[in-house]
Amino acid sequence: MNYGGAYSIQNPKHPVLAVPSAFITGQATHSYQLTLQDRIDMVGVVFKPAGLNSLFGLPMYEFSDERVALSDVLGNNMQELYDRIGEASDAATRIALLEQFLLDRLSRLKSPFNRTDYAANLIIEKRGIININELIDDLYICRRQFERQFLQKVGVSAKYYARIRRIGYILGEFVANRWHVTDWHELIYRAGYYDQSHFIKEFTGFTGKRPTVYARQNIELAKYLSEQ
Questions:
Q1: Entry pTM
Q2: Pfam families under this entry (predicted)?
Q3: Mean pLDDT of successive 10-residue stretches along the chain, which has 228 residues
Q4: CATH number for the domain including 183?
Q5: Which of 81, 105, 160, 206 would staple 156 via disulfide (CB 3.0–4.6 Å)?
Q6: Closest Cα partner for 149 from 53, 25, 13, 74?
């Protein structure tokens, strides 16, 4: 939920997509850019990969790389929640209102979590370094059923989600090390890549930039911000 200035995003799916003040978004499959008109002021919830589907039954493949107005998905009563949060005097109260809304929703569900939730969370735990075929065998589940349920609950295939998580791990390591990478080969190996060219191709495909360029530009950005 945004209580500041309007903004838009650009991604491979949308040259320009105006972002509603209160919205739901699914899995991002590629990098995207923000265009801000003014300062934004946001509060929101980042769910585990299957969380939105488990709570609201939404077909998450419809929300990948999207920003959809909350009221269009969950009804006009979401405007009341948006207004109450906007009127709150501090961040703690806003968070409490959001938490109460979600807990109320959760209390009405019966066993919302299943093996697909487990599989998606395991992919996160393993940083995407996981054999999906072996995972399916371990779950004793039909491959076609698993693929259909994963797409429904997460928005992308399990194999593609694992690829996203591996790149996410690399980016997390960049941040943890303040964008300085002293041993690329070690980092690539820990992320589960055994071929440098494959890593570079995959990283560039998700971020739009080669790893060394991406890291260097963020070092320059960090230096610029520290001087302001």
A1: 0.88
A2: DUF6597 (PF20240), HTH_18 (PF12833)
A3: 93 95 94 90 92 93 96 92 92 94 88 85 94 90 92 96 93 81 86 89 90 79 46
A4: 1.10.10.60
A5: 160
A6: 53
